[in-house]
Structure formats: C-alpha cells, structure tokens
Amino acid sequence: MAWLLLVIAGLFEVGWAIGLKYTDGFTRPWPTAGTVAAMVISVALLGVAMRTLPVGTAYAVWTGIGAVGTVVLGMVLFHEPATVARLTCVGFILAGIVGLKLTA
C-alpha cells in the first residue's frame, strides 16, 4: 500500500510542477489553487508512505517520479526538446526508481 501511495504522491508532484507553469508566477487564481492543492496532497501522501518505507528510498522515488513525469509532460505540453540525451537521462532516472523499488 505504501508503494501505491508513493506513486500517487509522485503523480501529484508532476501535477504541481506542471501547474506552476500555468500559474503565471502565481498571478492566476485557479491554476494557483490547483497547484497548491496538488502540493499539499503530494507531500501528505509522501509522509504517509514514509511511515513504512525508508526515507531515502521514498524521497528519491517521489522526486524521480516527479522529474520523469515533468520532463515527459514538458515535451508533450510545452514542446520542449526530446533529444536522445534527454531521453537517455530520463531512462537513467527510471532505472534508479526501479532499482530502489527492487532493493527496498
């Protein structure tokens, strides 16, 4: 259950990271409210997952999910470059997430 909560927390991290772009420097009320809500949910779920998962593993996986999701959505939504080097680096992050899951 902790791993599922951690994955959901990571997805909310992606949501707030992408949401920051839509807040326009926190000048748009609805995107700002959604972003702040996603931040709170993300950190709360991370905290619950850390009750049973090691702190280093949980935090690294949480940030890894956030990083990978944000990079991919940046490519899709904002037409950021999808170069071989960037995709390779994303692959390394994914490998690290899987490795931490397998060794936890």
UniProtKB/TrEMBL annotation:
Gene3D superfamilies the record matches: 1.10.3730.20
Protein's gene: sugE
This protein's name: Guanidinium exporter
Pfam family membership, one: Multi_Drug_Res
InterPro entries: EmrE-like, Small_drug/metabolite_transptr, Small_multidrug_res
Subcellular location: Cell membrane
Taxonomic placement: Bacteria, Pseudomonadati, Pseudomonadota, Betaproteobacteria, Burkholderiales
Keywords of this entry: Cell membrane, Membrane, Transmembrane, Transmembrane helix, Transport
NCBIfam families per UniProt: PRK11431.1
Entry similarity comment: Belongs to the drug/metabolite transporter (DMT) superfamily. Small multidrug resistance (SMR) (TC 2.A.7.1) family. Gdx/SugE subfamily.
